[in-house]
Amino acid sequence: MNTEFHRIKRLPPYVFAEVNAIKAKARAAGEDIIDLGMGNPDLAPPPHVIEKLCEVARDPKAHRYSASQGIKGLRKAFVAYYERRFGVTLDMNKEVCVTLGSKEGLANLASAITSPGDLILAPNPAYPIHPFGFIIADGAVRSLPYEANQEFLDALERAVRNQTPKPVALILNYPSNPTACVATLDFYGQVVDFCRHHGIWILSDLAYAEIYFGDTPPPSVLQVPGAKDICIEFTSMSKTYNMAGWRVGFAAGNPTLMNALVRIKSYLDYGAFTPIQVAAATALNGPQQCVQDMRDVYRERRDVLIEGLAQSQWHVPSPEASMFAWAPIPEPFKHLGCLEFSKLLLTHAKVAVAPGLGFGENGEGYVRIALVENKHRIRQAVRNIRTFMGGAGLILESAEKKRAAS
After folding, report:
1. 26, 45, 174, 281: which could join 31 in a potential S-S bond, CB 3.0 to 4.6 Å?
2. Domains of the chain
């Protein structure tokens, strides 16, 4: 019997597995681990949204199969949000689909539009589903720089000029997971013009659109005139309203891509649980002070983390957006690489972070720190890290001895 499944063989070993195993063992031994690894929001959804979920769930009719593309009321609420937030008009029947989170939408669209060997362009490092959604669908991926700057544009031009056949699609993700990089509308405009000229689809992941700390909100690629000719954009309720486990998001944009996604989904699912969709519409249509409150919480956590790490001589750029800090490995530990550094930080400081290598080979040299604990726990993490950094010499000496003995 063949146990070497083709698509599974295309997936690399799970980089986070070693760190997760150490974390689980430490917790089983009763150790207090401050987990800043997974981007798993710890805040609660707004009370009125939970109340709506409970109200609708009490209706016996609400437990039947839902609509794969999403109920009308939620698609209408999402259209209103895009008009209000970005000034973008959408047709809720042809240009909008409710997804089971943005991750599911991206993966299913990849399955819908990818032929074996098709080339996709994606930033590296990247959220894993961005390249691997296409790899699972038998596509190939070429990496681009992750910052939204001239280097990215030059690499994009080279990728198209030097590649035969030309790429089928380009992935964008700003604000970025894991790097927290942001993009301007002017950058989007240049990318759209280039890709439209060369007949390349654009898939934009805008899941962190509402977590920003400056005066200028992150733009949507669909704000570029003519973008809907080639673009589809994915958003999510997970981070904006702390509804990560509810699994509800959206796709918006090009009708051809939307039709492909809706058709695939019609075979695979019956849509999100109806009470969840009704509650999601309540979140979008209701008071938005909860979103500002969420931003304020993450801003405060960011400042506690970045300022505290700087006092420990670990200098990390302060993110302009997202719920992550993309942290270069501090100098004494750089030679170890991100995986070994993450294991030492967990073992000695009791702080879990995500090794950058888990987001692509260009993530080596970095770790991702998620702002998913309250400010008091983050202060404790910073104190632990300060002690860890102060004992760097002894920790490294002990680590070297263990490696030599093994």
Report:
1. 26
2. 6-44+290-405 (3.90.1150.10), 47-285 (3.40.640.10)
Residue 23 neighbours by CB distance under 10 Å: 21
Neighbours of 64 (CB within 10 A): 8
Residue-wise pLDDT for 125-136, tens only, equals 999 999 999 999
Q: How far apart are CA 406 and CA 402, in angstroms?
A: 6
Average predicted confidence (pLDDT) for the chain: 94
Over residues 7-25, the pLDDT tens digits come to: 888 887 777 777 888 888 8
CA–CA dist 98, 77 (Å, integer): 11
Mention every residue, 6+ apart, whose C-beta is less than 8 A from residue 285.
77, 80
Flag whether pLDDT at 406 surpasses 70: no
Contacts of 253 (CB under 8 A, 6+ apart): 90, 95, 222, 227, 228, 231, 232, 233
CA–CA separation, 255 vs 250, rounded Å?
Answer: 14
What DSSP line would sit under 220-262, residue for residue? PGGGSTTGGGTEEEEEESTTTTT-GGG--EEEEE-HHHHHHHH
Phi and psi of 247, rounded to 5°?
55, 70
